[in-house]
Amino acid sequence: MGRGRQKAKATKQARDMKYFSPSTDYSALQRELKATESRASRHDDPVEPDYSAYEDKYADQFDDEENDGGTRRIG
To answer: Hey, CA dihedral for 15, 17, 18, 22, is it positive or negative?
Structure first.
């Protein structure tokens, strides 16, 4: 007997949530979005370090994947 009452209550709550439409304060939403945009524009992207000095330093230790001599198994 308890499950039927529980299911009816859950159905009622789901229906109430589905058709509930609160009043939206669009001016407050606009202010919030505008504040977020201004905060995002103030921050600069972090500068990525220059790794060009290390680019060729270790290149001779590793072979290219294309020149593996046919040791790759296919199939």
So the answer is: positive
What is this structure's pTM? 0.30
Give 73's DSSP letter: -
pLDDT surpasses 70 at 75: no
Classify residue 61 as exposed, middle or buried by CB count within 10 Å of its CB (0-12, 13-18, 19+): exposed
Residue burial 30-52, b: 16+ Cβ < 10 Å; e: rest: eeeeeeeeeeeeeeeeeeeeeee
Would residue 46 be called left, alpha or beta, if left means φ above 0 and alpha means ψ between -120 and 50 degrees?
beta
pLDDT digits (tens, 9 = 90+) for 13-59: 999 999 998 888 999 989 998 887 766 655 667 788 888 777 777 66
Can you give the length of the chain in residues? Answer: 75
